[in-house]
Amino acid sequence: MNDVKQLKMMTLDDVLSQIEDGMTLGIGTGSTIELLVPKIAQLIDEKHYNIIGVCTSNKTAFLAKELNINIVDVNDIDKIDLAIDGADEVDPQLNLIKGGGGALFREKVIDEMADRFVVIADENKVVNYLGETFKLPVEVDKFNWYQVAKKIETIDGVTTERRVTDDVPFTTDNGNYILDCALPKGIDPYEMHEFLIHITGVLETGYFLDVADQAIIGTQQGVKKMNRQV
């Protein structure tokens, strides 16, 4: 049996083969991306590629800069050729829940800018419906987070908790809180996103709907690819 790290490593070659000279890359956040970034640096070094990177978190940007990848601010570019990121859940329609690392707002900005968005994940992230195994992260303003949580909980069966790390409230790179929302089966992701995004104090939700073009999944049987049905 392959362990989870091996399953993640299996996905890297496929996504590296999609990187071309001259590209602007969107580089995501999380454990799978931390395995990928050194491989991107190696590719640039060996093939003398001219690559610009835009990162979805300060943590990824720090790692990439340490490896001499040319990282720029998102406001200094007009387009992204390819965005690569992990996911916390992937459903059969290639819709995602993301935000386990707390970078969901910046991830959404970069993934939506990209001409092509590829997800790399292990088979444990593949679900029948969004919310099956992972709570939906929602980034909210600190000022009225409690009122936002209560409003979200007016939906039948939904419970929320403010994310806490080492006994202190987790704060995103944008200075906000994350509410992790447990969802019952049967919630429509599109309707739920629309409801949440119109609550005053919600910056963004962890629903990534109709955004991913491909998911590369590491499984015990090898690499499987899911492609968006156009």
From TrEMBL:
Coiled-coil portions: none
EC number: 5.3.1.6
Residues where substrate binds: T29, G30, S31, T32, D85, G86, A87, D88, K98, G99, G100, G101, K125
Residues the record marks as active site: E107 (proton acceptor)
Record-level GO cellular component terms: cytosol
A Pfam entry, by short name: Rib_5-P_isom_A
InterPro entries reported for this sequence: NagB/RpiA_transferase-like (IPR037171), Ribose5P_isomerase_typA_subgr (IPR020672), Ribose5P_isomerase_type_A (IPR004788)
Record's keyword annotation contains Transferase: no
Key words, A-Z: Isomerase
One of the protein's GO biological processes: D-ribose metabolic process
Gene3D superfamilies assigned to the protein according to its UniProt record, in alphabetical order: 3.30.70.260, 3.40.50.1360
Family that this chain belongs to: Belongs to the ribose 5-phosphate isomerase family.
HAMAP family referenced in this protein's UniProt entry, alphabetically: Rib_5P_isom_A
Functional summary from the UniProt entry: Catalyzes the reversible conversion of ribose-5-phosphate to ribulose 5-phosphate.
Name recorded for this polypeptide: Ribose-5-phosphate isomerase A
Organism expressing this protein natively: Staphylococcus warneri
